[in-house]
Amino acid sequence: MTGYLLKNCAAVIADDGPGPVVHRHVDLLTEGPAITAIGPNLVSQNLPSGTTVQDASGWFVYPGLVNTHHHFFQCFVRNRADLDWTKLSVIEWLDRIYPIFSRLTEDCFYHASVTAMAELIKHGCTTAFDHQYNFPRHAGRRLIDRQFEAADLFGMRFHAGRGGNSLPKSEGSTIPDEMLETTDEFISDCARLIDIYHDAAPFSMRQVVVSPCQPVNSYRETFVESVALARDRGVFLHTHVGEGESEVMRARHGLRTVDYLEDMGFAGPDTFYAHCWELTHDELKTMAASGTGVSHCPEPVYLVGAEVTDLPAMAAFGLRVGLGCDGAASNDNSNLMHCLHSAYMLQCLAASTRQHPVPPPVDFLRYGTTGGASLLGRKDIGRLAPGMAADLFAIDTRRLDYVGTRHDPLSLIPRVGIGATTDMTMINGRIVWQKGEFIGLDEAKLFADAEASFASVAPVVEL
């Protein structure tokens, strides 16, 4: 069995359970998919056959980041002046962007996933959850299958959120009819994907999450049936909550979104919501009591958030919190490492308006690692310790960028921010990215194929 010895790491951010701690000048040993030892001078021991020794001098080694909310397919609408939020109303923006989404083909969904996963891996993400809710009728039913294919290409740990929308525009939805499904179609495909791909074993590389897009764009029965399927199959639940729709839900159903979902059982330790920036303290306490988690997406706050999400209150009430990039419609990159920095800085900006103190920088590292693992129900990822998955990334800090910062590896990413790609990313014991290259892949060809797919369906409109 193959493995790696990372020799003489400048720092390893290890965690045996209580929380991350810094081990200085130690080695880290992997065998197969797992970490087997962290300690000084492991190179002097009898190493397992097939172990590759790699000099890690100057490296800070971190647990792989866990992305808990994204929309990969939106990578085809990044950095477009004709879709600029600052020049359009929300309704005008939706009217422009959904026709583009509805034209995407099966190949587009594949290449968009390749694009997003590549950027995630380059910036230290080793496990990705994607909320794929766009199913144009002409694109067929194999869109999630193609996402698993993209994950296999890179060797990425992938949790597929099978989303969907069932409420027509004529009844208050914002979704074009060509992107709608019936509840039966949605549930049937969720069940198919669970049967084919879901693996609950330790070190699983493939899992499925039942993820109706958002309550405001689906019938109640879609959510009721989602709960029934997920609980029957032992998989997790996810949806969008608290991003401006709560009063719309109250007008329709007499309940704001959190109470609406709690009422039907779409809540609990097997459930996590995305965003939640508009929720009241009472609603956050309700979620904490049920064990429901939050995927906080900080970067969309810059573009579309009406307010900075109250993470200090979430921390004070004991909510489980992870981090997500969100899709390119509200965040033009797939850099989860940058989200750690954005999340911390935004909370500092809003500190004077908060009832509770801003969590320390190290907590934002936790949100991106153990917090994300908790949202996805994973006990085998998110921290570096013997027996845990060998999911990690390394930053060579022997650069001018890091002068004066190396005394505190725990705060480095949230407080200082990292502008460059990692020097190495390892997933499940396999190095997938090192020295600016994807191991065994031709990035130039992947780029050309993705660009061609993009150009075929989403030409830029000149202003």
Describe the structure.
There is one protein chain. With 463 residues, the chain is of the alpha/beta class. The chain folds into 2 domains: 3-63 and 382-438, Urease, subunit C, domain 1, CATH 2.30.40.10; 65-375, TIM Barrel (Alpha-Beta Barrel). The protein has 14 helices and 17 strands. It has helices at residues 90-103, 106-122, 143-154, 183-197, 220-233, 246-253, 257-264, 281-290, 300-303, 311-317, 336-349, 361-375, 409-416, 443-457, and strands spanning 3-14, 21-31, 34-39, 51-55, 59-63, 65-67, 125-132, 157-162, 206-210, 236-241, 271-275, 293-296, 321-323, 392-396, 424-427, 430-434, 437-438. The strands form 2 sheets. Strands 1, 2, 3, 4, 5, 14, 15, 16 and 17 form a 9-stranded mixed sheet that branches. Helix 8 links the parallel strand 11 and strand 12 (293-296). Helix 4 (183-197) runs parallel beside helix 5. The longest helix has 17 residues, at 106-122. The chain is globular and about 70 Å long.
Task: List its traits.
alpha/beta; Urease, subunit C, domain 1; globular; 463 residues; TIM Barrel; 9-stranded mixed β-sheet; 8-stranded parallel β-sheet
CATH first level of the largest domain: which class? Alpha Beta
| CATH level-four homologous superfamily name of the largest domain | Metal-dependent hydrolases
CATH architecture of the largest domain: Alpha-Beta Barrel
Low-confidence stretches: none
- Count of runs of 4 or more consecutive helical residues: 14
Spatial separation of the terminal alpha carbons: 57 Å
Based on helices, strands and strand pairing, what is the structural class?
alpha/beta
Count of DSSP E strands? Answer: 17
Could you name the CATH topology of the largest domain? Answer: TIM Barrel
Q: Indicate the proportion of strand residues.
A: 15-25%
Q: How many domains, as an integer?
A: 2
Using only CA atoms, what is the Rg? Answer: 21 Å
Mean pLDDT: 95
Shape: globular
- Residue share in helices? 25-40%
* Largest sheet report: 9 strands, mixed
Organism: Rhizobium paknamense
Domain Amidohydrolase-related: 60-432
InterPro entries: Amidohydro-rel, Metal-dep_hydrolase_composite, Metal_Hydrolase, MTA/SAH_deaminase
Pfam family, one: Amidohydro_1
